[in-house]
Amino acid sequence: MKKSCLLVCIVIFICMEYICLADFGNLQDTCPTATQAKQTVFINGFNCKNPANIASSDFKTSNLNHTGNIDNIFLSAVTIATAADFPGLNTLGLSIARTDLEVDGLVLAHSHPRASEMFFVSKGNVVAGFIDTRNKVFQLGLNEGDVFVFPRGLLHFCFNSGFEPATVFSVLNSQNPGVVTLSGAMFGPDSDNVLDKLVRQLISLSGSKHNGVGNMTLAGFSIM
Predict the structure, then answer these.
(1) Residue 141 class from Cβ within 10 Å (0-12 exposed, 13-18 middle, 19+ buried)?
(2) In angstroms, how far is CA 35 from the centroid of its own chain?
(3) 172 near 98, Cβ under 8 Å?
(4) With contact defined as beta carbons under 8 Å apart, do 155 and 136 qualify?
(5) How far is CA 176 from CA 7, 121, 127, 173, in A?
């Protein structure tokens, strides 16, 4: 009898844990972000528009239909649309991004603490990869139509491995994925040397212009 009661308690505890960890489902069909001049109430997300004012335009964005500003040292641009500027995404747990890479363009290692990322190559050839908690690099050369996955919270990067500009679209499973970058401020007075070293190692690990890139260790470099 005692064993049966203990088993029931364990099952109830496990079920309650899963319920607590699960995302809450929508309580209504749609909940476009309500634009406010000044936020007076702070919640985990955004307030919904008045249902009477919801329009089809809330579910469309044109922010990703043009090339981003790649006039920078990395020859790249990342444009992301979240629920903050794409109202229809509110409560859906999604964001979308566009990455533009000029020839030799690079997006330095960064992470999204609240989202995994599906990385779809729309144009060009790209090397994409991520670094796990064992400091091991997983990267591959991607062609048009290929998809790569960046797990949640892990540092990831990409660079143009082809001879023409590349365009990539990403979907992230959070309406506010967040981003943590390897900025120079993290490395102190020798930040330029460390960033240069990281860039050189990531590019040298590519090995080729296409799919001959597999699992490797980022030897000699630590972000700790």
Answers:
(1) buried
(2) 24
(3) no
(4) no
(5) 39, 22, 26, 9
- Could you please report the per-residue DSSP string of 53-73? G--GGGG---TTSS-----ST
* pLDDT one-digit tens code per residue, 110-145: 999 999 999 999 999 999 999 999 989 999 999 999
Place of tokens 């109430």: 41
Name 189's Cβ contacts closer than 8 Å, sequence gap at least 6: none
**3-class state of residue 176 by DSSP:** coil
Say whether 147 sits in a helix, a strand or coil. Answer: strand
Q: Which two tokens stand for residue 163?
A: 């001879």
Q: Residue 68 to residues 121, 134, 146: CA-CA distances in angstroms?
A: 16, 34, 21
Question: Which residue reads 């590349």 in tokens?
Answer: 166
